[in-house]
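Quick log. Single chain, no ligands specified.
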Amino acid sequence: MTVIYVDTLFLLNALVDYLLLLASARLAGEPLRRVRFALGAALGGLYAVAIFLPGLGFLAHPLCRLASAALMLLVSYGGSQRLLRQGVLFVALTCAFGGGVVAIGLLGGTGLTLGGGVFYSALDLKTVLLSAAVCYGVITLVFQRLGRHSAASGELVRARLRLGERSVELTALVDTGNTLTDPASGRPVIVAEGERAAPLFPREHRPEPTDLRDPTAALTRLGTGAWRSRFRLLPYRSVGVDRGLLLAVRADGLELEGRARGPVLVALSPTPVSDGGGYQALIGPMDERRG
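-> predicted structure:
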């Protein structure tokens, strides 16, 4: 007779679900919302426990499993424009992980077991936690390498911005999800980290971190004199932000990989645009083909 401890059952399944949710987000190139992933994983852990409780065996029905997975995905990824893609990735990774567990079991492993659609282990809680920490480290290293954008693939380009006599060079990611356009001209907008674009501005007109977080006040403070026509407010929408504003500046010139692209509107982001710091700006794929 197999004895299943509720605390180990919950913790093990929650940890496995968290790692799978995190890995799916990394593969999809989505922001890592760790708190939401933790909540989704906790739901997965509770569901694993509920299946074994008296009178709740019906939860093991495939339709209940599907509803549980859908709820977990909505909690973790809800609002994402790539929800379907992340769901498919999560299911694929779950199947791969489950297949690996079964294979280990067939080879005589006794650590982690897959049964009834949930994971359980006869190991003590301390060993389970240590194993989960090691798995997290390995998965993080693997997906950092697999998900790293490269210049060779054309995803990363050298972008040089010029404003008057000043210029700054940034590494930009060609992002198909960046659809920001200048309302006045219809031309694409570059989103650059405000801190990295600071060399473009003289000290008296240089946006500070507080300016980037409060663009309306910044426009009043910085848009004076000859700079009145330089700064403007740019409305945008993103996941979790229905109506937002970014402080934007009109640069005199843009070069992509040494090729001039003419004037461009640059939106200054108050936060890093790259989770790992591999690039400092985002451009749409059409930017490279417009003069």
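Residues 6-146 form one domain.
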